[in-house]
């Protein structure tokens, strides 16, 4: 090789090396752009998730407040009179047995039932007439089975502690149904 060709070869080598470096830089720039776009999408999705989470929490809080208000309104609507009780029960003995109270007259029964502290006890403790609660399960027992399906539900002990009767189970399931139906797409 001559001395003149050596510098040209070096120039070509430097040019190729420069082209390779530019190509690498361009690819890095493209990858950086892709990563910036992906990060931007991830941050946007995260913001949307946070917004949906906040909305869902607000909806759940609203539903719980609504349920509590409705429960308070229903509890306040139970105002008993002698006439109402006499229509509902044949005898004072039947009424006393139904409410598990010891009273001597219809008037004293009405007074006890309309007492606000007793109202909450009724709503919490009074099982529905078509249910028998035994250990960890609820069994529907209906004399007139034409109107109701017979259903046996077995509850695990930890669940039975939280849901002591069918009313509590049904209320929780209805609440879950409302939450799920509001948030289905």
Query: Uncertain spans, ≥5 residues at pLDDT below 50?
Result: 120-147
Helix and strand sequence: HHHHHEEEHH
* Shape category: rod-shaped
Q: For the CA atoms, what is the radius of gyration? A: 37 Å
The largest β sheet comes out as: 3 strands, antiparallel
Which bin fits the share of residues in helices?
over 70%
What's the total count of β strands?
A: 3
How far apart lie the N and C ends? 76 Å
Q: Give the class from helix and strand content and strand pairing.
A: mainly alpha
Strand content: 5-15%
| Average pLDDT rating | 76
Output the strand order for the largest sheet. 1-2-3
The DSSP helix count reads 7
Could you describe the 3D structure shown?
- The chain has seven helices and three strands; from the N terminus they run H-H-H-H-H-E-E-E-H-H.
- The model is unreliable at 120-147 (pLDDT under 50).
- It has helices at residues 5-77, 82-88, 92-99, 106-114, 116-125, 157-162, 166-182; strands at 131-134, 137-140, 152-154.
- Strand 1 and strand 2 (137-140) form a beta hairpin.
- It is mainly alpha-helical and 185 residues long.
- The chain is rod-shaped.
- Strands 1-2-3 form a three-stranded antiparallel beta sheet, with no helix packed on it.
- The termini are far apart.
Write the topology of this structure.
Layout: H1 5-77, H2 82-88, H3 92-99, H4 106-114, H5 116-125, E1 131-134, E2 137-140, E3 152-154, H6 157-162, H7 166-182
Antiparallel strand pairs: 1-2, 2-3
What labels would you give this structure?
6% strand, mainly alpha, single chain, 185 residues, 3-stranded antiparallel sheet, 70% helix
């Amino acid at each position: 090789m001559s001395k003149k060709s050596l510098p040209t070869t070096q120039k070509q080598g430097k040019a190729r090396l420069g082209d390779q470096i530019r190509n690498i830089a361009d690819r890095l720039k493209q990858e950086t752009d892709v990563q910036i776009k992906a990060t931007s999408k991830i941050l946007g999705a995260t913001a949307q998730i946070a917004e949906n989470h906040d909305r869902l929490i607000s909806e759940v809080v609203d539903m719980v407040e609504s349920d509590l208000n409705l429960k308070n309104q229903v509890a306040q609507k139970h105002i008993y009179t002698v006439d109402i009780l006499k229509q509902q029960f044949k005898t004072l003995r039947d009424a006393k047995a139904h409410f598990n109270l010891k009273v001597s007259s219809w008037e004293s029964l009405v007074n006890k039932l309309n007492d606000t502290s007793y109202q909450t006890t009724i709503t919490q403790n009074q099982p529905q007439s078509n249910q028998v609660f035994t250990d960890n399960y609820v069994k529907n027992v209906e004399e007139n089975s034409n109107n109701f399906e017979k259903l046996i539900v077995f509850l695990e002990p930890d669940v039975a502690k939280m849901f002591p009767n069918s009313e509590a189970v049904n209320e929780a399931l209805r609440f879950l149904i409302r939450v799920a139906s509001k948030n289905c797409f």
